User: Which sequence fits this backbone?
């Protein structure tokens, strides 16, 4: 098995190879055909192909030597006003030599740029439009100032549908000679939620163990508890057995090495899957939210998780009391 990162190895090279995002691909192809690209904002969740789309656009536009005509900056590392005034401005002001009269600057994580840097970038985009076009990739486009947004064509990326997600992972598994079981595929989707980059990296990490990839392997690699174990713990608490539920919680933390915040999120998810009346799901979601806030504020994990189970047991007692009255 290759030690090359699979996310990079299987990254699409052209717009035709892009998975899903069909409307976006069609719009980008029209830019390539016209050999004219406006300033763009690629917005959407991580792992949905924003940076890949920008690189595919550049390759289709400039050919195999596209790297000579683009510059990539990760704005989460280089996001100050000095970078815009020096690095970005220097690149943008130099005219491209070739059939396409402009270069492309790709700013990844652009929503992490400081307000001052964005103001400086706005002026640079305005001044050097003839020689450079900007593609801003952002998870949250609302964090980009309005003057920049008004100068850019927006593109909204979405998570891959389950079918496309599974098809792509199976393709990788077949090419790499990895045995990927259906339950392992379900677990990867459960853990990654449609983030294809994270899904590919999880698949590679699981494959490195040299075992058939099942749910147990995926959850251990991802540092997540098995949903069945979480559900069992909730059911134990709902039966009023606090000590046993707390024992199961400690076993999960030791077995999977799960952080408190991750356990909280999984409990929140499993509550809505539980077979209990909706008003009690709402009540329990409120309890989980309160404990999560305490953890964020710096409270002790074990104390707060025990308090969460105690609150669930209390809610169960109240629920049984209401049922008896009815």
Assistant:
């Amino acid at each position: 098995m290759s030690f090359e990162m699979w996310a990079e190895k299987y990254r699409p090279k052209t717009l035709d190879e892009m998975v899903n995002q069909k409307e976006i691909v069609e719009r980008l192809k029209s830019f390539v055909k016209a050999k004219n690209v406006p300033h763009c904002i690629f917005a959407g969740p991580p792992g949905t192909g924003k940076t890949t789309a920008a690189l595919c656009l550049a390759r289709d536009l400039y050919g195999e030597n596209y790297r000579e005509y683009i510059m990539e900056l990760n704005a989460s590392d280089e996001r100050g006003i000095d970078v815009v005034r020096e690095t970005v401005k220097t690149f943008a002001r130099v005219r491209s030599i070739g059939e396409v009269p402009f270069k492309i600057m790709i700013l990844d994580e652009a929503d992490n740029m400081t307000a001052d840097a964005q103001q400086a970038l706005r002026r640079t985009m305005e001044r050097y439009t003839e020689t450079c076009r900007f593609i801003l990739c952002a998870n949250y486009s609302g964090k980009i100032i309005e003057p920049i947004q008004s100068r850019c064509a927006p593109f909204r990326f979405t998570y891959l549908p389950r079918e496309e997600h599974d098809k792509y992972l199976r393709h990788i598994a077949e090419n790499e000679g990895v045995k990927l079981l259906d339950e392992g595929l379900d677990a990867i989707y459960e853990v990654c939620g449609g983030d294809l980059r994270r899904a590919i990296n999880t698949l590679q990490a699981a494959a490195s163990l040299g075992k058939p990839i099942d749910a147990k392997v995926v959850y251990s690699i991802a540092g997540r508890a098995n949903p069945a174990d979480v559900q069992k713990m909730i059911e134990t608490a709902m039966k009023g057995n606090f000590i046993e539920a707390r024992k199961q919680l400690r076993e999960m933390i030791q077995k999977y090495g799960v952080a408190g915040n991750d356990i909280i999120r999984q409990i929140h998810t499993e509550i809505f899957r539980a077979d209990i009346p909706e008003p009690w799901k709402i009540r329990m979601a409120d309890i989980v939210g309160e404990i999560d806030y305490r953890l964020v504020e710096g409270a002790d994990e074990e104390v707060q998780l025990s308090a969460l189970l105690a609150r669930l047991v209390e809610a169960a007692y109240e629920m049984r009391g209401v049922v008896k009255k009815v």
In short: The mean pLDDT is 86. The CA atoms of residues 179 and 199 lie 16 Å apart. The two ends are 62 Å apart (CA to CA). The domain at 6-156 is CATH 3.40.50.300 (Rossmann fold).
